[in-house]
Amino acid sequence: MVKSSAIFGVLLIHASAGCLSGPVSAPWLSGLFWNALARPAVPLFLMASGALLLPPERELPIKRLYTRSMARLLAALFFWAACYKLCYT
User: Fold this and answer.
1) Contact of 19 with 31, CB cutoff 8 Å
2) Which pTM value belongs to this model?
3) Rounded to the nearest 10 degrees, how much is the dihedral formed by the CA atoms of 7, 83, 24, 41?
4) Residues with Cβ < 8 Å from 74, sequence gap 6 or more?
C-alpha cells in the first residue's frame, strides 16, 4: 500500500512538471500545488524499496540503521550542498 501510493506520487510529480514550464498562471499554480503535495513520495518510495530488500528474518533496530548510515548520508548531503552552491552562486 505504501509503495503503490509512493509510485502514484512520483507519477503525479512527473505529470505536473509540464505545467511548470510557462509563465505564472492558474495552470502553473495548480501544477506547483500538486508537485509540492507529492514531493514526499520520492523518499517514501526509496525507503519502501530498501525495506523490501532486507531479509525478513534479520532484525535491524532503527538506532543501528541510523548510526551505521549517518556518515554516508551526511557526506552525500554536504557534497550536493557544495555542488548546488557552486552552480547557483
Assistant:
1) yes
2) 0.45
3) 10
4) none
